[in-house]
Each structure stands twice: as C-alpha cells, then as structure tokens.
Amino acid sequence: MTRTRATSTFDFSGSVVLVTGGGSGIGRATAEAFGRAGAQVAVTDVAETHAKATVDAIREAGGAAELFLADVTSEAAVDRLVDRVVAHFGRLDIAHNNAGAGGGVTPLAEVSTEEWRRVIDTDLTSVFLCLKAEIPAMLDSGGGAIVNTASALGLIGAPSMAAYTAAKHGVVGLTRAAALDYARRGIRVNAVCPGVIDTPLLAGLPKGARDQMALGAPLGRLGQPDEAAAAVLWLCSGAASYVTGHALPVDGGAVPGGAAARFGELG
Predict the structure, then answer these.
(1) Is 242 a catalytic residue?
(2) What is the DSSP secondary-structure string of 39-91?
(3) Of residues 12, 89, 164, 234, which has the active-site annotation?
C-alpha cells in the first residue's frame, strides 16, 4: 500500500525534551522531529557515534541538541543523566523513553535466565528507572509529558518471544500506573506500541524476511521511523492534552488484525 505523507506540524519551542535510545531508529526519528519543532533535545544513547550523528543532524537542520551518554539499565546512570540534563537546560518538560533491545526467537522453556533478565532489564526496568528520575524533575518544572516505547507485542502475544512480550506488556502496565499516579499533578504518561518498523535492525535481513514481516500488517508494508515519531510528538503535544494512560498502536493494523502468529513465523 502506498504511504500518504503526514502534513501535521507541531511547535515545541521552549520545551526541553529527553530522548533515550536516540542514536538510531525510532529514537533518532523522534529526536530529529522534536528538533525541527523547536525543542531543545537531549539525545541519550550508549553508542556515542550514533548519538553524535543524531545531534549533528538536528543542529545542521537549525535545531538545538546536546549529547548525553548513559546506560539506562543503571539507576545511578539514569539519575546522573536527568541531573545533567536539568543542569544544562534548566528544566525537563518532555521525555521519550525509547531505549531498548530485541529478544531472541526461542520457545519459552528454552529461554535462559540470563537472556530473560537481559531483556527485562533493557526493555522494562530501564523505563521504570527513567520514569522514577524524570517525574520529580518534571514536577519541579510544573508538569510535562512522557511517552514510553512499548510494542504491538505489549498488546498481543507472539510465539517464541516470551521475554520481549512480557517486557513490553510490562511497559504498557507501567505507563498506565504512572499516568494514574500523576494525572492530577500535571504529568501525562502514554505509550506508543510500534509494529514492525523499518529500522537499521531490519536492514540486514533478506528481502524475503522483510516481505514476510510486512505481511503482518493489514496496510501491507513496514512502518517508517518517522511515522512512530509523529505519534510520539502528537502524544506530547497540546493536541493530546486529554490523553493519558493510553497505549497507542502504530502498527499498520496488526493488533486489530490479529497478526501475532505471523510475527512468530519469522523464527
């Protein structure tokens, strides 16, 4: 299916935005989109080269961005990160907790405990640690908006992806709990649930595998990082001022289409 280009624009002038996992994929697209919309962007990643490329791209387009390296699976590192962002920019208004990693395609009983812990720490605990540090900073700034990156597999199940599915379901639950805790204190918390997005992670796959993944979406194609980024910006904008605790699929129709089994066939 041919993609129709979005024409929506946002204005985040004066806002300070933190994007974790900003060196590639959805994180980079979101960081660059916030930069084009006038925000001051704190780009965070563990990969310095990739994060620097994002910062350079934002600056070359006329935006404002700074690089902050951090391992978001470490509570001490996350606390330092938020402190450094606030010290540099003076406040924190918006956060996109996007950092994460994929899991293997393995039947549950064959998943090692080490792999389980790695995926849970990277994809779920990191979001908890970021929320825990970001929320007090936003309260000091008078409120804010947070979007966590979950997954379509945070809303449905898939065979042979137990750890990843559990982690992303956890992100959705964590998002809803945080939204309720801080709804009356000026902080909205939502999640995006991407389907199969055409990120560098997929670039090395054979064309046949990529085509099969596209079949999992009723729209008949892979999603693009900027499409997920547009959803993040909308959730953070005034246009979504009455939206909190929501898990928004950006999946080409995969969740309502019940395409989880097709995702699992890739293994």
Answers:
(1) no
(2) -EEEEEES-HHHHHHHHHHHHHTT-EEEEEE--TT-HHHHHHHHHHHHHHHS-
(3) 164
Q: Is 14 exposed, middle or buried (0-12, 13-18, 19+ CB in 10 A)?
A: exposed
Structure tokens at 222: 């892979």
**pLDDT digits over 141-168, tens only?**
999 999 999 999 999 988 899 999 999 9
CA 259 vs. chain centroid, Å, equals 21
Q: Which amino acid is at 226?
A: D
**In whole angstroms, what is the distance from residue 156 CA to residue 193 CA?**
10
Q: How deeply is 119 buried, as exposed, middle or buried, from its count of CB atoms within 10 A (0-12, 13-18, 19+)?
A: buried
Burial of 104 (0-12, 13-18, 19+ CB in 10 A): middle
- Model pTM score: 0.92
Mean predicted confidence (pLDDT) in 39-54: 97
**Residue range 197-211: average pLDDT?**
75
